[in-house]
Give the backbone structure.
Amino acid sequence: RRRREGKTDYRARRTMTLQDKTKYDTPKYRLVVRLTNKDVVCQIVSAKVVGDEVMCAAYAHELPAFGIKVGLTNYAAAYATGLLLARRTLAKLKIADQF
């Protein structure tokens, strides 16, 4: 269905998510950024057999809590949302104090 709708190119998805066989069942993570009319969504995703699993996510509508009040869909907001996602991921992996 997703192929018919033109949403997913499964050949490109397969080459993007294939992990080297010497890495034995280690997940391969990718950064997904979606720009909408009202929000910026950043996610770190790994592919599973049953479906993609989101490890961590950040949204531009969370930025006013950090002092950015306006312009939540521009280039600077996308950068700030990616930075928020990076800090969250490091905190989740418990290595934030090293960076």
Observations:
- The longest strand covers residues 29-35.
- The CA atoms of residues 9 and 21 lie 23 Å apart.
- The two ends are 43 Å apart (CA to CA).
